[in-house]
From TrEMBL:
UniProt protein name: Cbb3-type cytochrome c oxidase subunit 3
Organism annotation: Pseudomonas triticicola
Residues passing through the membrane, by range: 12-30
UniProt KW keywords: Membrane, Transmembrane, Transmembrane helix
Highest taxon in the source lineage: Bacteria
Length: 65
């Protein structure tokens, strides 16, 4: 028995696969168990910035030539 797959069938199967992946990813992202992991990951871009030691007045520059 030979099954001939048309382009429409292949595209339909591709659409189903992408839709299932989308639903799975959406459920994974909005899972409440992952909230602490995502809260930590949300701060990663700021991890390499040094923390200020003290809050001081901004330095001023002279406007004299």
């Amino acid at each position: 028995m030979v099954i001939e797959m048309s382009a429409g069938l292949i595209r339909g199967l591709g659409t189903v696969v992408v839709f299932v992946a989308f639903v799975g990813l959406t459920l994974w992202v909005f899972n409440r168990k992952r909230t602490p992991e995502f809260a930590e990951a949300r701060l990663l871009p700021f991890a390499d910035e040094p923390l200020p030691e003290t809050i001081s007045a901004p330095e001023t520059r002279s406007t004299r030539p």
